[in-house]
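Work Package 3 (structural annotation) set out to generate three-dimensional models for the target panel prioritized at the project kickoff. During this period the team completed the workflow that converts sequence records into discrete structure tokens, so that structures can be stored uniformly alongside our sequence database. As a representative example, we reproduce one entry of 538 residues exactly as it appears in the project archive.
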Amino acid sequence: MDPNPAWDYLVLTASKSSQARAYEAHIRLRRQAGLLSSIRQVIVAEDPGGRRVGSGGSTLLALEKILLLEAGSASAAETVLRRLRVLIVHAGGDSMRLPAYGACGKIFVPLPGLGDGPLPAALFDRLLPAFLDLPAPASDQGQVVVAAGDALLLWDAVGLSLERGGITLLAAEATPLEASRHGVCCIGQEGTFSLYLQKPSVEQQQRSGAIGPKGASVLDIGVMSIDAAAAVALLRAFGSQLGQGDPFGLTSQAPLWAARGGVDLYREICCALGSQTSLDHYVQSVRSSGSRWPDDELERLFPVLHAIPACVQVLPRCRFLHFGSTRQLIESGLALVELDSGAAPYDAILSINNTFGPAGVIRGECSWVEGCRIGAPLELSGHNVVVGVDVDSPLRLPPGACLDVLKGVSRNGGTLWFVRPYGVEDTFKDSASQGASFCGMPLLEWIAAVGLRPEDVWDAEYSEAQRTLWNARVFPAESSPAAFRRWLWMYHPAAATVEQKQQYRGADRFSAAEIAWLVDQEAWIHRRMENWSLLHRA
């Protein structure tokens, strides 16, 4: 057998139809450029009806879809999967912590470095080769690799083997504190995988023997290889009733998974793995991680999942670069430039896929500027993120100020541009009652400062606990992209004039959640491709 045969399927998961359309557009560009030639078929699979089914649920739906595509004989599902290599990259999510790239999703965040490729490089383009280079298992086992697409993994996979049956988790050593935010694998004295802990405290890691003699824990890096038999066991466990109905008898239980908060790979599935795992440990682990599955269902799932053979492969060297939040864009972008070139930018300005006119220049430090057209000086005071902005006259932003401008459609279908000023530390996910901020101020205080009431920015359907910056109608829309300057006072509402506040209260305002649906995906891509073309002609 070829030691690293081509892949039959790449599945990219999406959380909703608008995100799926964006992913399909990005994939189409890469297909046309010949960048995915080692993959027979690429699929974008969205959560059904926009209802979140979790990473495990998305994995199962992807497998169901592949089995249906492979129909044509009455072969058993396991027989079909034994002849396939499948890569599933989970890329769903609302990008609440990374609003500037809600249009493309975290997986297609542009990365620093001009490069010589036919397209501007994105996180997807740096991740995919590492996944595709993973070794194949033994002949006729089949292989389903499942990976998270929200961080750049830089690893040394020399000596890695994926020939053992069942589920193989890839892991790396980390400090117990870092490991406490992820899944942790407990390794017994003989190197066997004994227990899986989901986001355990340092104290819990100590009690469970997860911390090794050198003071390191074994962190699950979010990549696993599953053979055909284990994949079918997972399908059966969660209700894909093989052998009834269609050629493979797949009766998806996606609505049930969504109603229970989804099937999480690391919660409902991995917590059942390991030689020393008990039913009590499993139920306690998934409950403490927020599972809404009933106890009787967990008791039914445990023996089926626990019976799947599982092992852990610890990579000798592995580093994460996270691009999941606004601040991480800057931190991880600088780290990536340093890794690629051996030195960080001298002014720590990350200029990515921008075009410059004769008077265009960026001055400042520790900032991220991407997809902009800069015809005049852009002065940055530090920790700024500027995306998709046309700088036609001098522009200066205060420390921590972020700004993005997006072309989209109005609620009535007309063309407009969304203007989004916010702060680098603003928390779009937290509720206003929990202290969510906007432009560096507590969100409720900001709303009051411009003369609005909570009911003016949130729909009645949102309870007080559900009111976040993500669903607050605070971002104005304009008929021209250059009109963003009218709203720069939003960084300091106390200094705004009475007239400015009146204009804001009467403006057509949108929430980040609405903008994620209304953004013009094709325009977002077209702008980057135009910039890329100009840069390569220069």
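The chain has two domains: 7-320, 347-537.
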